[in-house]
Amino acid sequence: MLELRLVQGSLLKKVLEAIKELVTDANFDCSATGFSLQAMDSSHVALVALLLRSEGFEHYRCDRNLSMGMNLNNVSKMLRCAGNDDIITLKADDGSDTVTFMFESPNQDKIADFEMKLMDIDSEHLGIPEAEYHAIVKMPSAEFARICKDLSSIGDTVVISVTKEGVKFSTRGDIGNANIVCRQNTTVDKPEEATIIEMQEPVSLTFALRYMNSFTKATPLSNTVTISLSSELPVVVEYKVADMGYIRFYLAPKIED
Amino acid sequence: PCIQKKILDYFCRD
């Protein structure tokens, strides 16, 4: 028996909008720790890892570990029927091949349940090692989205370079090239407007902008984004999901032939 | 000429 009640249902709506472009089908895993998902895009270049900790739910019942295969486009269709202020409850019985999404309006005057068929998905679970990153950049998520969007009108790839001067996003294309430098800036009115750069050593990596732009679909989840870079690892682009968890996007770099 | 690396070049199956 599974029953997860999320008072801030809009978080789940935003989570689905954040990942459905990148991943078509995925297993949602339920355990005592929380509600999670790990999936790669169809070309195995990017990986998304979602965790919503059990403590973040108003009610969290998961009698045994459960993996539920879902088509994310269909989940998104179901969740779009929930109001932004609705409380969302996920329910599934043991051995059932369906999951039910229950939507309650804040004053309880409308209660809807949508039942969705589950699917069998063969997915590989990857071990993601704890790692030391050469540079970690925390910046406003809207700023990062703007940079990725702007650069993708010039080129297909972005070079992200972190030095003591700041973080530089560069691209080049047929019509020309572009460089955007963001310097550390902590003298702002609100902490979420700060750009904070922690650098152990300089790092410079090249990534496909198409994926970066896809990751920025998570922007509505959080005012800030954290970009962790290491020359030996995929970049991690992380958006917090309120105080209950995160979405982490991993993207393998492009390297010189 | 850049090669797009894959996630599986870095992370192993559990």
Descriptive overview:
- The complex is a heterodimer of chains A (257) and B (14).
- Chain A has four helices and 20 strands.
- In chain A, the strands form three sheets. A nine-stranded antiparallel beta sheet of chain A has the order 6-2-3-4-19-18-17-11-15. A five-stranded antiparallel beta sheet of chain A has the order 5-1-7-8-9, covered by helices on one side.
- In chain A, helix 1 runs antiparallel to helix 2 and helix 3 runs antiparallel to helix 4.
- Chain A is globular, with a radius of gyration of 19 Å.
- Chain B has 14 residues and is mainly beta.
- Chain B is rod-shaped.
- Chain B starts with a strand and ends with a strand.
- At the A-B interface, strand 10 and strand 20 of A face strand 1 and strand 2 of B.
Outline the fold blueprint:
The complex is a heterodimer of chains A (257) and B (14).
Chain A: E1 2-6, H1 10-19, E2 25-30, E3 34-40, E4 46-53, E5 59-62, E6 66-71, H2 72-79, E7 87-92, E8 98-104, E9 111-117, E10 126-127, E11 135-140, H3 141-152, E12 157-163, E13 166-173, E14 176-182, E15 196-199, E16 203-208, H4 209-215, E17 224-229, E18 235-241, E19 245-251, E20 254-256
Antiparallel strand pairs in A: 1-5, 1-7, 2-3, 2-6, 3-4, 4-19, 7-8, 8-9, 11-15, 11-17, 12-13, 12-16, 13-14, 17-18, 18-19
Helix pairs in contact in A: 1-2, 3-4
Chain B: E1 2-4, E2 12-13
